[in-house]
Amino acid sequence: MKKLLRSSFSAFRRTIIGLFCLIGLPAHAELPAQILREFGVMQFSSPTERETAALQTDLAWIGLYQSSIDGRLNQATRAAINTFQESLGRPMRRTLAPEDRAVLADRARQTRAAAEFRDTRFEWTGTRILLPTSFLRLPELTGKDLTDVRIPGRSAAGLELQLGRIDFDNPVRPNAWLDAVVEFATDDEDEEDVEILKRGVSGDWVYLSMLDRGYIFNFVYQIDGSRMRTLQFSYRENVQFTVQPIITEVLQSVDLFAGEAVPESQIINRLREGDYPGGRNVPAWYRDMVGSGSGSIVSREGHILTNHHVVAGCERITVNGQDAILFGSDIRSDLALILAPAFAGRTPVKFRSDTAVLGEQIYVMGYPVFTTTQSINVTDGIVSSTVGYKGDRTHIQITAPVQPGNSGGPVLDRHGSQLAVVVQKVSTSQQIRKNIENIAWVIRSREALEFMRRFGVRPIETERSTGSMALIEDRVARWRQQTVRIECHDS
């Protein structure tokens, strides 16, 4: 099911485009009442129903009401009222006193405000929508043709939105589209557990809701002749009533055909310029980064030590987004030196000239999986062996967790002296096959010192210290000034 949510419809379009031949109806700005009802957005005629629905909504905002907002004083509503009264230390009754109702309204208002709704227009797809920004991360492009906009979630609700657009060669028939989408989503051996919750057509609109592996996936399509706009939203099954007030506001706000989408012929240029959803929120060096690693500042001139494999094949190198050049590398030892003038004058790291001691405490600084973590990371462990893989004496073995992106980063002793360079962790296949955990091999400082001297760089050397130490947070604050991120670019 997730393949349908996370990917562009381009390949899907090519496989089923021959099914459609009838003209769709003119576009409408608002979702039809039928679709809103299907997704729990009700319209109430009587004052009593409206009042009860408002009560249910406020209770849902603070997580107490776990049922449909139907305007009826049902058992779930009474249970939620009782729970709220109990939280206030009040006797449990069927209705709320005016002062308690005011407290509930205020709490719900504050919770809604914390969702930080923002009226947003996505020129990329021509869609306008109210986004609960505190539940979502920055938008990103997705799909093979990069025509869809995905807005990933950032909360326990698992809420995620995706907006898309499709231009067909022929007009589209809504019923045929619905049948094709259902077949495409369920015609897979891996999708045997998919349960269709609701499906239907209302004029030129198509809607579909499915349950798959604990997630509810919802799809809304609007068809205008041979053009189609899409809204997809998903969340965890166990929070469907908790997110109901959020989904209600989103669905009531959406205008899928609010404007013209960016022509596909302009997409490449817009990508290069960073003029796309999420593109303006990241610097130019991030947009064309194809890989990253870590390194340590080893001289006051701005020399930085990292791995050869971090910079191999890079057409351009930046360090923390600043221009740098390759100073020299050695594929045998997997070490490299970079010169980054922007970092000249910083206090370099000190290198341990003596051997690491079995069992001594160590710390690893670096930028693992940077596109996910977006920050520097510190992990700790011990020297678990004074030799590396299969007895390699140019390496030592440590227990500190390392991940892709840690490569080239410093391994420091308790006083902040570098005693190794991160280079390799146990492969996933070996971890599974041999049940190996918490092992990484790192290049010992002796190898790094010999490599740097070969290129005329004279790092500061020291021996193992046994003196007093500052608080760990103060030491880490100092070490992070000596640890940098290496970015590899293909242009």
Explain what you see.
The protein has helices spanning 2-6, 10-16, 33-38, 47-61, 75-87, 98-114, 174-186, 244-253, 267-273, 284-287, 308-311, 370-373, 428-434, 445-454, 472-480; strands at 117-122, 127-132, 140-142, 148-151, 160-167, 195-202, 205-212, 215-224, 227-236, 289-297, 303-306, 316-319, 322-330, 335-339, 350-352, 361-366, 377-385, 395-398, 410-413, 418-425, 440-444, 460-462, 483-489. Residues 1-28 and 427-435 have low confidence and may be disordered. The protein is α+β, with helices and mostly antiparallel strands. The strands form 5 sheets. It has a 7-stranded antiparallel β-sheet. The chain contains 15 helices and 23 strands. Helix 4 packs across helix 6.
Index terms:
491 residues; alpha+beta; seven-stranded antiparallel β-sheet; six-stranded antiparallel barrel; 15 helices; elongated
Give the strand content: 25-35%
Helix content: 25-40%
N→C terminal distance: 36 Å
Average pLDDT, rounded to a whole number, is 88
Q: Spans with pLDDT under 50 lasting ≥5 residues?
A: 1-28, 427-435
Shape: elongated
**What's the alpha carbon Rg, rounded to whole Å?**
29 Å
Number of helices: 15
Main sheet: strands, sense, barrel: 7 strands, antiparallel
Number of strands: 23
Report the structural category.
alpha+beta
Read across the widest sheet, the strand sequence of neighbours is: 3-4-5-9-8-7-6
Short description:
The chain is an alpha+beta fold and 491 residues long. The chain contains 15 helices and 23 strands.
Structural topology:
Blueprint: H1 2-6, H2 10-16, H3 33-38, H4 47-61, H5 75-87, H6 98-114, E1 117-122, E2 127-132, E3 140-142, E4 148-151, E5 160-167, H7 174-186, E6 195-202, E7 205-212, E8 215-224, E9 227-236, H8 244-253, H9 267-273, H10 284-287, E10 289-297, E11 303-306, H11 308-311, E12 316-319, E13 322-330, E14 335-339, E15 350-352, E16 361-366, H12 370-373, E17 377-385, E18 395-398, E19 410-413, E20 418-425, H13 428-434, E21 440-444, H14 445-454, E22 460-462, H15 472-480, E23 483-489
Helix pairs in contact: 4-6
